[in-house]
Amino acid sequence: MNKQFDVLVIGAGPGGYIAAIRAAQLGFSVACCEFSAYDDPAGEPRLGGTCLNAGCIPLKALVASSELFEKASHHLAEHGITFGGVNIDVATMQQRKEAIVTKMTAGVQFLFRKNRITLLKGRGSFAGRTDAGYRIMINGKDGEEELLAQKVIIATGSKARQIPNIAVDNVCICDNEGALKFTEAPKKLGVIGAGVIGLEVGSVWRRLGAEVTILEVMTSFLGAADESVSREASKLFLKQGLHIKLGVRIGQAKQTANGVSIAYTDDQGSEHILECDKLIVSVGRTPYTEGLNLEAIGLQTDERGFIPVNDHCATAAPGVYAIGDVVRGPMLAHKAEDEGVMAAELIAGQKPHLDYNSMPWVIYTTPEIAWVGKTEQQLRKEGHDYKTGQFPFAANGRALGLGDAEGFIKMLADATTDEILGVHIIGASASDLIAEAALAMEFRASSEDVARTCHPHPSLSEVMREAALAIEKRALNM
Predict the structure, then answer these.
(1) Binding residue per annotation — 60?
(2) Which class for 454: exposed (0-12), middle (13-18), buried (19 or more C-beta within 10 A)?
């Protein structure tokens, strides 16, 4: 055994590579192992995990391209801009997406070199524990090697959940990865799952001309979001042409001469067949722990497959932390990043803390959806006395000028202290606007604090201020 490190990170996704960088900044000798299912053409592992390679980054690139196509096709005439027919070259769109992915993953490689992080190309697994630290086996293309690490951070992420009896081949029946690689827009697209990924991917191909039907087993739409946002989103998506069927039971899906046939039963008990060219299975993700050999250090996953940790992401094995999708909580890249920073700082003896209630959620549909904190239905269930203020983008000059005036911002505050309890947005640039709300909640700000903060005019951020003013029934522009 000739390699020893203060900190070893298993997995180079958003949580893992950020954890490795922060540990290196704190002066530790750091290694990060990655076997990666996303090798580049040279056969080298591409860092960044699912997020950079087959999730957040490539999907948002396609979102941007499809939104521009839809705007050019349907919404520029109102600006006085007219031209001939608009066409989409899906191959060029996909090339642009891949170039962005390559640039981002290469950027992580650069950050590793900059911070003197040793990249170990292979799958990491535990081999046991000694007085000197944890024995880790790295199984790579060139064989197997053993090293020693004083502390370990597990950041192995998640994988797409599968439906029994529906075989994903990523040609006709695809998971979220295959859904990003279509070479043309299908005429008819079926999506199983009306969650974040299902809505985002379905919206991309709808903008490019697909007739999209989304089948959702839950009887409520976007149940995690505030009920006001869910209702507005359902109305707007229906207007756009998305067909969303709730409360269904999925039967058999089989490939046919023309594509895919999916049998399902609706919420009234009637049986139906959905015929489509492509089917996307988007029913969530499950933690990825295969091959870690956790038993060698006395750990095991819980009944849902997660690695049990405490509030600071420490496992029951001393000096071993687990972060991101492989532990409890929402599967969000920014959650994994913050947990990675926290784990590194705890190893350094610092006392970091994460407020999970102040972590924002975002859905990159059109319009975007974002929220942070409690929903109104959660507050009612808790018996919490609260006040609410809401303001529409339709009354905002900047939103009207942009031609993106759908939706609203809703703010919830404690009825007595006025502390902000939650903020919910459906509208243009919600992914950026929600950061102000998250910051306010981190500082335990009141709605009055936001209401009395001068916001630039004209800007979309004024809608946040007006929602805060509306808490006390004193919105100025409505």
Answers:
(1) yes
(2) exposed
Catalytic residues: 457
For the chain, which residues make up each domain, given as ranges? Answer: 4-159+286-354, 173-283, 358-470
SS3 string, 274-304, reads: EEECEEEECCCEEECCCCCCHHHHCCCCCCC
Using the structure block, give the residue that is written with the tokens 């580049």: 40
The CATH architecture assigned to 4-159+286-354 reads 3-Layer(bba) Sandwich (3.50)
Per-residue pLDDT of 185-207, as tens digits, reads: 999 999 999 999 999 999 999 99
Burial (CB count within 10 angstroms: exposed 0-12, middle 13-18, buried 19+), residue 15:
buried
The answer regarding whether domain 173-283 maps to CATH 2.40.110.10 reads no
Check the annotation: does 200 bind a ligand: yes
- Tens of pLDDT, residue by residue over 226-257, are 999 999 999 999 999 999 999 999 999 999 99
Q: Is 44 annotated as a binding residue?
A: no
Same fold, 173-283 and 358-470: no
Indicate the fold that domain 358-470 takes in CATH.
Enolase-like; domain 1 (3.30.390)
- Residue 337, annotated as binding a ligand: no
